[in-house]
Amino acid sequence: LSFVESGGGLVQPGGSLRLSCAAIGFTLEHWTVAWFRQAPGEERQGVACSRATDDGIHYATSLEGRVTISRGTTRRSVHLQISSLKSDDTAHYYCAAAPSDRACSGPPQASDYEVWGQGTHVTLSS
After folding, report:
1. What are the residues whose beta carbons fall under 8 Å from the beta carbon of 41, sequence distance 6 or more?
2. For a tag on the chain, would you pick the N or C end, based on fewer CB atoms within 10 A?
3. 98 - beta bridge partners?
4. Quick count: other Cβ atoms within 10 Å of Cβ 73?
5. Residue 43 contacts residue 94 (beta carbons within 8 Å)
6. Parallel, antiparallel, or unpaired: how do β-strands 115-116 and 32-38 relate?
7. Cα separation of 110 and 118, whole Å?
8. Average confidence score pLDDT of the chain
9. Residue 54 neighbours by CB distance under 10 Å
10. Max Cα distance, the chain (Å)
11. How far apart are CA 123 and CA 121, in angstroms?
12. Three-class SS string for 1-45?
């Protein structure tokens, strides 16, 4: 079980970006899914999560209002829309899944998630 993320690249400050991830080897209708990011020299940060049971969603407080997590219609994809991009958004972004909806009772914590992708890198141009 894993993910393949896409959509990263070099973007300009102030712009928007849509990241996607595709589940490999499983479908997502019974899994809690999340996006994380890790900047150079920083710890992995939970960005957003989505519960399968009741469509509940939580965002990192510092990012709320600029990010939107959504599930695709194929039961195998998850997306993250980021707007008003700034230099602090430069990071490697990862998709992850957990079997329990308790993993999205608040902003996601990496230790609660079992399935990960390799990530996609987002760099803000100067």
Report:
1. none
2. C
3. 32
4. 7
5. no
6. unpaired
7. 14
8. 95
9. 8
10. 41
11. 7
12. CEEEEECCEEECCCCCEEEEEEEECCCCCCCEEEEEEECCCCCCE
Is residue 116 within 8 A of residue 96, CB to CB? The reply is yes
Tokens of 69: 């997590």
Residues whose CB is less than 8 angstroms from the CB of residue 111 and which lie 6 or more positions away in sequence, other chains included? none
DSSP E strands in 28-114: the ranges are 32-38, 45-50, 57-59, 67-71, 77-82, 91-98
Percent over 90 (pLDDT), the chain: 91
The predicted model gives 92-99 an average pLDDT of 97
State how far the Cα of 124 lies from the Cα of 93, in Å rounded to an integer: 13
Nearest of 40, 18, 19 to residue 117 by alpha carbon: 19
94 near 84, Cβ under 8 Å? no
pLDDT given for residue 73 in this prediction: 85
- Tell me the one-letter amino acid at 65: G
d(CA 3, CA 24): 5
Q: Which amino acid is at 15?
A: G
